Structure prediction request, 688 residues.
Amino acid sequence: MSPADDVSWPRAATLADVASAAGVAISTVSRALSNPARVNSVTRERIEQAARDLDYSPNSQARALISGRTRAVAVFVADVTNPFYFDLIRGTQRQLKAAGYTQVLVDTEESDELEDLTLQKLRRSFDGAILAASRLTDARLAALSHEVPMVTINRQTKSVPSVFIDTPSGILQAVEHLISLGHRKIAYISGPETSWPNEGRWRAFVRATERHGVEPQRIGPFSPKKAAGAAAADAALNSGVTACVAFNDLLAIGMLMRLRERGVSVPEQLSIVGCDDIFGADFCNPPLTTLTAPIEQAGRVAVSMLLARLDSTTVSGMRDRATLPTHLTVRASTGPVPHERGRP
Amino acid sequence: MSPADDVSWPRAATLADVASAAGVAISTVSRALSNPARVNSVTRERIEQAARDLDYSPNSQARALISGRTRAVAVFVADVTNPFYFDLIRGTQRQLKAAGYTQVLVDTEESDELEDLTLQKLRRSFDGAILAASRLTDARLAALSHEVPMVTINRQTKSVPSVFIDTPSGILQAVEHLISLGHRKIAYISGPETSWPNEGRWRAFVRATERHGVEPQRIGPFSPKKAAGAAAADAALNSGVTACVAFNDLLAIGMLMRLRERGVSVPEQLSIVGCDDIFGADFCNPPLTTLTAPIEQAGRVAVSMLLARLDSTTVSGMRDRATLPTHLTVRASTGPVPHERGRP
DNA sequence: TTCACACACGCAATCGTTTGCCATAATTTG
DNA sequence: CAAATTATGGCAAACGATTGCGTGTGTGAA
Prediction:
């Protein structure tokens, strides 16, 4: 038999089917299945048997229609391609499944309009949303938070609960690591200017460098993609810095590849620090010194916060802000400052 | 205002609200919005205005209840962590969004039971499913395909339409590449034995080696994860082969890391070929020679096939089998066979 | 003037559940 | 043994949208 011959999608069994099979009313079946104590045990068993025979499975749409709850949560990411989100998605997925929720993945393609539109159009299709790296304005975010329960990740706004990965504090560590290696000309390789974490990292970079009497340089912006690393590497080389901190690992890895291509050795000629410690940061060449972020945990915490306010009737005394620490993981992409040309 | 104070999730506007605002019947609003030609233009504009004012957005649950169509498709992956699925998810996501469908991501955690259960429990929540690397038996797959329209990826069964990435043909190329480099002792590093593509790759490996009078060796099974690469590397080293073809890139990259740790150089002492060309295969150390698979395309094609049979009434003459070619991408992890010990 | 025929819109049933309310039967209590 | 209570299960109204059918209005032709 060819698959194409297979045209019958038989109507699935409904409560009514089970009811007539068991010889009871629909309401009794409903109760037997969702509130067993409410119906006599012998009736219940008859019903359960019938349900099993008919392979009954409740229609979640109908259920959602009454309860107003879909038991689904949307996770908005800027770009499914970015490995950063994979740890995040893994975290949310695990936690959601554990709570019996299903995850709906939405890719906003780094567009605020698409994010806004989807959030509006689909708001009835899920009980809440996790916004990872939202591109929305504070005002819009505040407005939408009235329509859909939500939690943001790496985006703090007073009107919305959030999980924040404290990369800025890590930046301080990273800068001090570079300074201790003798670097004095250090640049921040900027990500997209619409990115909220990017600005936070830049501010932390400024604070950290100034504390040590070093002038902060900013190069960019660049798209947070591996391909953009080529331009970033060229720009960094041209600027004459001896070390740089990149907005994220993707960009840093892209730089590493370009530098290798151009024959400049890392860290002998240029030290590079990334952010996030994504998949690949440990096996690239050279392995990347980076700010390790608890990304998966961030996903789990965000889900917990969201579900807490979905499931409880009272919202008082609930944690609405979480900050997760990062730490510097030193690998092989950072090293002592190179000797000045002509001097030992 | 603290987020915690924010307790009101106002009831969203319904057709009834719009109807009373516009002073018409519910049915008229419904038609004005979904079948504009059916209602007078001035009434329609009044309705549209009211809908806009009330920020009306249709309840997809209610819609699904009537139509029986949810406009959602589930994508089942064995492990969201595995970068192989990154590209796949990206492909399905793009194609689904383009068709106005939403993607529901399900992680089966490499468990056939979980896969089966979820498929059953959620079958009414989506219109169809894409099964990437299903662990189900042929019989079960056939049975379930009667309940839910589905398309498998990298899993061919006569009862279910499928998209197949032709890695086996690529294995032939890979083996010939190794043979042309002088290798005669070559092993296949096996993935999980429950994995369907793993068996196909092994069979292709056997065919390819035997064609060249080389004895096929099999090492494993190993979990298709980076961490398992350590054991695989040790085993390969111990077996005395000079080259190997790994079940997938993840395993190959793990091997690369372990070999570096043990101080054995690739490809001077051992050549390695991966499969899939996932994210990272190009920037690991050394860059991996691998079988480049059109993963994202596979996702897109699978979605197209699924939607084709969902949207059309007639299923006849529909493509129910697609094979996508792979090609060998030679990078730096393969090289000439090492000289025998003591001989030049 | 009357018949026919669009056209525009409303009525009400429907999808599959859940749940408040009520009727009956069974059990306990005084 | 009557009265009060409890256990059990059925009826019917929601939830929000779609859609077949019917009604009323207006237009043109005979």
Confidence is low (pLDDT under 50) at residues 1-6 of chain B. The first helix of chain B runs from residue 15 to 22. Residues 24-28, 31, 38-40, 43, 62, 64-68 of chain B lie near DNA strand C (CB under 10 Å from a C1').
